[in-house]
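Supplementary Methods, section 5.1.

A reviewer requested that the exact input to the structure prediction be made available. We therefore reproduce it here, unchanged from the version used in the analyses.
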Amino acid sequence: TDSEGQDVVAESIGAEPRLNIEGLTNRSYFAQISAIDKTGLQGLPRGSRFALPASAAPPAAAGMPVNLGWSASRDADSYRLRIARDPAFRSIADEVEVNQPHYVSNTLEPGQYYWQVAPVIVRDGTQTQQPYGKTGTLRVRPPQGAPFVDGSEPDKLWLRWDSVPGQKFLVQVARDPAFSWLMLSATTERPEIRLNRPAFGTYYARVQAQSAGDGSAPFSLAQAFVVTDHWIIHDGAPFAVGERALRGRN
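The structure derived from this sequence is encoded token-by-token as follows.
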């Protein structure tokens, strides 16, 4: 971890010009390489600094900010970050230079991405980019669709929404568009839920997908619907929580 090679965390001898090291934590390192001839004579070491970012970023939903962070390098004046659609970094989706060890991207479409960070050092007015660190992975999920009323009976109604296999869901129904007055908050493994038909009025529904190993996605847009004595109807298009409601609360 130091430029003098006193704090050694890994050491290996091999015939291939590459080395895989498992178990390194997220921080800066120094690597020293020496050539060894057939007689065992070892040459002078040649060193280089590199930094490991986090190996994976939390999944994000399309249209939501994607937050990437990594360990700061003590000698770095800035960092060069590149995000690609392929592990060989032939198709670059975003590439920036930032002064702090974090970045927020707002341009990524749904899909699988790969990212790397390289420290940039400035000495005597000359900028030198260090090698890129370990490749991290990032998956941007399609945004969760808002729930909709799929049917009703005199004393029941059911909501449905789009899904992919392996997901669980948190469903909320509220009397207000800010979801501070909750009428229902329940989890289900199916992309639908049945609930007792509420009293006359305007209600708001939203859903949050939860995938094993991926954590929770952002809530969907909120869908307003109106319950009357005879009908249950949608009340306009889904909207983001915090936008002005299309109808006042009943």
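The chain is about 0% helix and 45% strand. These observations are discussed further in the main text.
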